[in-house]
């Protein structure tokens, strides 16, 4: 299959070497786990346990009737201590169930599918939902919805995103290297649900080992492994589809509009565990790195572990840290407190020094157009900053503001350090509030 | 108390390249032309360039003080304007005019619009246009080998006699390419400008298509007009304009397609002025005129959005 590539993009220093050969270590579950009730795109869940209840590991503790939702589970056995609004890594406070770990590792009984090859699509989708599976690339979109596109759209390709184009991160990379069978089995389950022939795993060519391992694991399965040029944001859903299939997802549409479903490789492993082993999504591999970390690692931590636990385990140098970022350096979220917990979408935790962030005071725009060249969506970020300065929100929409995927390439490349992505985020929020 | 962590939106890392780096890259690329200028015109070339740079920086300093802006005279942009202004005037022009032109470049060409990034016209060319309008004789008096003489373009346009030494020195094409002839300080050596231009293309500060289109258009127009295309592209300010002024980030379009249209417009205007207009040269005016069209060009050359329905 031909590799087509996509237009634009940037190539920041990769900084993968610190953790790419670090085998996944399992972090001991903490004494207190904090399970946020908003672990997916959608609405917060309603708790189905109350303070004082004893919960078992794997037990559903909150769920919702809403379409875009998946349940969360107790990640340890113990007692519900509190249910209250607590800091949340993505923004503000969110209702959180706090469980005191009794270290008993007592499991709830787990439903699984005995022979998935004979199971119906509906059964498989329902168990994927029940186990709380969301897209683990960071967006946390409920997987059962992604795998169930509207009946009038024909899906003919399934793409697996193993690009992991964000600098610093290695969690998908390590999962592919260490658990290739799970990934491949998970992909087979998805293939069975979607009934597609074309299945391609895209992996950036800076992950040679993962490419080799996955190629070997895919032998004879009809699943193709495609090395991709290392270029951010190669793993953006639309960029990935363009690079592998040379199809452009129309503006404002989902990949299903061009007959494609994209899922992350780590999600595939989670699907396997959910269907075959009956395991809910209880933990997440997180890359902990950055110059303010003395022992960078890939840790498997249960959901609800405070990030301070992860940092301390990796030699966090508090005095050197300038910014703590959950996720990658290009799209992750800066954290103001270390009290926030690991959530389903957490793939990285960065303790960045001042030197690393390389912040400098913004200067005047010199109109160099580097942001225009870097934009993978072929937009003109230069105009957004200019228009935002004069509150010209509608004019920003005329420049296709809503098509921006907020990858941050424009801000990254700007020699004047203009707050381009910031202008875009504000513009989007303004436009949304005007529509209401 | 726990350390206060820095917040702020993504991305959390940024490229090491700053505006200053961009400016100094261009300054570096202009050094071969400065060396060539001082080889052909002697110490005078260095003096004129130094006076121009210092006048530009001083003007910028005063303006930024008056406008209560941060003083940023070392960001490279004033230095760059100083060099470019020196390059587009004859090396033997009175130093008073050099200073006046440099002041106009920065004050009227750049600071009245609000400073770096806000100007519409190339500042160095604004300075040159001002001097050309005020002291037309001073800016068209060229000397070479201590002899006053017409430039190659004068010769071609008006049938004037050039100093015969130049022609006798050997290959005319080679001489015009290397720069052994009368002309403006930094314009005569196409070779030196090409070296600097190649560096900028390599550093991705310049899109090679812009100079290629400008030079190509003039070349083709010369052929059509029945003139010698090589003498036309190697003489006058074409290489300097094509590599260093039409590619000025502030005053050229930001879209790829826009840059092509802009370059083609300059090539056409240069040819029109040279073959149909009153001046033997026309690069400075062509670029200034096209600078005025930049907002319009930007508006109509938005790239096709990813996923836009055709």
Structural features, described:
The complex is a heterodimer of chains A (436) and B (310). Chain A is α/β, with parallel strands linked by helices and 436 residues long. Chain A has helices at 17-20, 121-130, 143-146, 171-178, 180-194, 208-218, 237-245, 265-276, 307-313, 354-357, 370-374, 381-388, 393-398, 409-413, 420-435; strands spanning 25-26, 32-36, 46-47, 54-55, 60-63, 72-73, 78-87, 93-101, 157-161, 198-204, 223-228, 260-264, 283-289, 297-302, 323-326, 333-335, 348-352. Helix content of chain A is 28%, strand content 19%. The N and C termini of chain A lie far apart (45 Å). Chain B has 15 helices and 2 strands. Chain B has helices spanning 19-41, 43-66, 77-87, 95-107, 123-134, 136-139, 152-158, 164-168, 172-178, 190-202, 209-225, 229-234, 238-245, 256-276, 283-300, and strands at residues 142-144, 147-149. Chain B has a two-stranded antiparallel sheet with strand order 1-2. In chain B, helix 2 (43-66) runs parallel beside helix 4 and helix 11 packs antiparallel against helix 13. Chain B is globular, with a radius of gyration of 20 Å. Chain B starts with 18 loop residues before the first helix and ends in a 10-residue tail after the last helix. At the A-B interface, strand 15, strand 16, helix 14 and helix 15 of A face helix 1 of B.
């Amino acid at each position: 299959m031909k590799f087509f590539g996509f237009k634009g993009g940037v190539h920041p220093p990769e900084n993968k070497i610190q953790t790419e050969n670090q085998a996944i270590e399992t972090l001991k579950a903490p004494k207190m786990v904090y399970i946020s009730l908003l672990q997916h795109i959608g609405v917060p869940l309603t708790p189905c346990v109350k303070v004082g209840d004893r919960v078992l590991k794997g037990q559903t503790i909150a769920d919702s009737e809403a379409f875009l939702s998946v349940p969360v589970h107790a990640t340890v056995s113990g007692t519900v201590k509190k249910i209250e609004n607590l800091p949340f890594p993505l923004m503000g406070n969110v209702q959180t169930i706090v469980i005191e770990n009794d270290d008993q590792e007592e499991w709830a009984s787990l439903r699984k599918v005995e022979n998935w090859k004979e199971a119906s699509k509906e059964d498989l989708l329902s168990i994927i939902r029940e186990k709380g599976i969301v897209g683990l690339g960071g967006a946390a979109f409920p997987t059962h919805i992604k795998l169930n596109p509207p009946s009038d759209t024909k899906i003919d390709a399934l793409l697996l995103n193993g690009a992991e184009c964000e600098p610093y991160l290695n969690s998908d990379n390590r999962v592919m290297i260490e658990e290739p069978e799970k990934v491949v089995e998970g992909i087979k389950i998805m293939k069975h649900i979607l009934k597609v022939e074309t299945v391609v795993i895209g992996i950036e060519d800076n992950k040679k080992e993962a490419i080799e391992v996955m190629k070997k694991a895919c032998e004879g399965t009809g699943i193709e492994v495609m090395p991709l040029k290392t270029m951010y944001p190669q793993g953006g859903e639309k960029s990935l589809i363009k690079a592998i299939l040379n199809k452009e997802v129309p503006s404002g549409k989902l990949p299903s509009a061009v007959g494609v479903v994209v899922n992350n490789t780590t999600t595939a492993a989670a699907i396997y565990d959910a269907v075959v082993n009956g395991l809910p999504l209880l933990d997440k591999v997180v890359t902990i790195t950055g110059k303010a970390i003395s022992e960078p690692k890939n840790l498997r931590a249960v959901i609800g572990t405070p990030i301070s636990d992860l940092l301390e385990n990796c030699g966090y140098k508090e005095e050197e840290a300038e910014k703590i970022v959950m996720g990658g350096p290009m799209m992750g979220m800066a954290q103001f407190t270390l009290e926030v917990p690991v959530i389903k979408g957490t793939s990285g935790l960065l303790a960045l020094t001042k030197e690393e962030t390389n912040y400098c005071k913004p200067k005047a725009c010199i109109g160099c157009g580097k942001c225009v060249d870097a934009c993978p969506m072929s937009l003109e970020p230069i105009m957004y900053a200019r228009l935002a300065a004069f509150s010209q929100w509608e004019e920003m929409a005329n420049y296709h503001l809503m098509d921006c995927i907020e990858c941050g390439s424009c801000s990254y490349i700007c020699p004047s350090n203009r707050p381009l992505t910031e202008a875009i985020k504000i513009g989007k929020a303004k436009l949304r509030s005007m529509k209401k | 108390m726990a350390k206060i962590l820095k917040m702020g939106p993504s991305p959390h890392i940024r490229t090491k390249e700053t505006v200053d780096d961009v400016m100094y890259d261009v300054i570096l690329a202009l050094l071969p032309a400065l060396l060539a200028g001082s080889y052909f015109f002697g110490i005078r070339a260095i003096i004129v360039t130094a006076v121009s740079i210092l006048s530009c920086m001083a003007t910028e300093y005063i303006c930024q003080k008056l406008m209560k802006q941060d003083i940023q005279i070392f960001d490279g942009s004033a230095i760059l304007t100083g060099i470019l202004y020196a390059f587009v005037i004859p090396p033997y022009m009175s130093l008073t005019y050099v200073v006046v032109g440099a002041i106009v470049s920065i004050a009227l060409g750049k600071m009245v619009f609000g400073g770096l990034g806000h100007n519409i016209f190339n500042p160095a060319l604004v300075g040159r246009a001002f001097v050309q309008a005020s002291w037309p004789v001073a800016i068209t008096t060229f000397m070479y080998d201590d002899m006053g003489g017409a430039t190659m373009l004068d010769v071609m346009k008006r049938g004037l006699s050039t100093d015969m030494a130049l022609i006798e020195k050997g290959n005319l094409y080679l001489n015009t390419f290397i720069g052994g002839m009368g002309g403006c300080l930094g314009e005569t050596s196409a070779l030196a400008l090409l070296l600097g231009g190649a560096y900028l293309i390599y550093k991705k500060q310049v899109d090679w298509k812009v100079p290629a289109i400008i030079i190509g258009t003039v070349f083709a127009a010369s052929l059509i007009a029945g003139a010698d295309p090589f003498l036309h592209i190697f003489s006058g300010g074409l290489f300097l304009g094509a590599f260093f002024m039409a590619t000025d980030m502030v005053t050229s379009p930001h879209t790829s397609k826009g840059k092509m249209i802009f370059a083609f417009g300059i090539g056409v205007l240069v040819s029109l002025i040279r073959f149909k207009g009153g001046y033997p040269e026309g690069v400075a005016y062509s670029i200034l005129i096209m600078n005025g069209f930049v907002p319009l060009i930007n508006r109509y050359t938005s790239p096709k959005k990813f996923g836009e329905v055709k």
